[in-house]
Specification:
Order of helices and strands: HHEEHHHHHHHHHHHHHH
Structural class: mainly alpha
Shape: globular
Oligomer: single chain
Largest sheet: 2 strands, antiparallel
Strand content: under 5%
Number of domains: 1
Helix content: 55-70%
Strand order of the largest sheet: 1-2
Length: about 325
Amino acid sequence: MIGYERDRLREGPLLRPMDAPGLATIAFFIAASLLVPDTGTVRAGPWTLPRGYAVAAAYVAALALILSLAAAERRYGGRILCFLRTLYPLLLITPFFLESILLSARVFGGRSYDPFFRALDEAIFGFEPYLEFYKSFESFPRFNELMFGSYFTYYVMIATVLWIPWIRGNREETERAVFVYFTMQMVVAIWYVFFRVQGPKYWIPELREHWYGNFEGFLFVPFFQRGFETVTLSGAAFPSSHVLFTTLCVLFAWRWDKRLLAFYLPMLALVMLATVYIFAHYAVDGLAGLVLAPLLYAAASRLYDPVRRLWGLGPLPDPRARAVPLKVS
């Protein structure tokens, strides 16, 4: 049965090493939300409460749900519970990212480092890529769809990449990948809170005025035009999470099955271009993500076996000894 190793992995502590980075990040956001509660307001019957208190309560409830899910999988087993128990951290990606953005606007008075990165872009390239790139192609619908579609595909990739070792029947490797992914997620989520960079589209008046109305397209372009009108995502530009985690997908592919690089490597190039084309990032944001991803990946990977030993578990076997090659027609 795909990804299901009930007997071996139902032994030992209820929580497993893969849970550690996600739970640590939840603990951070509980503390941060209580210390900096004024990220908005929520209505609770006749009362209006600072949003941070509601967020802290929601994360406490999330902890209870995680423990309940782990206990249910331990007691009842089954493929569905096993799948949910192993890959539940994927549901935390969006809340972590959004909370980082909202907190960054309050910490240190919302100070932003955009002037430095704008100047750095111009110093490196001799011009400002995010101001020049889109002007050359925004009237070409197919190119716009390629760029906006690549930006969208990132979300599909990060939601599904951890499924690959699971589908191949290797739950232990899936847990290792979850640990690595969410250790990196923890690092950048906390970084974004304290190091705010809004990105060109929010910082540069010319781009705020121009916005996205002149881009022509038929699917992804109108989707993002509507989305950017209603959702503000300023404050998590450096390093580019799009580039950083797409690079992580490339590193996972290198470890699991190099044939997957035929998809992930071109997507990495397109995502890097797209982040600048839609002026969500300075060019140096993407370059930083490209450089930092292997470093964070190596650090998180080296950390996994020591954390397993703390849990009383042995080192993880080489996945290549157990992997079932993907069939290519």
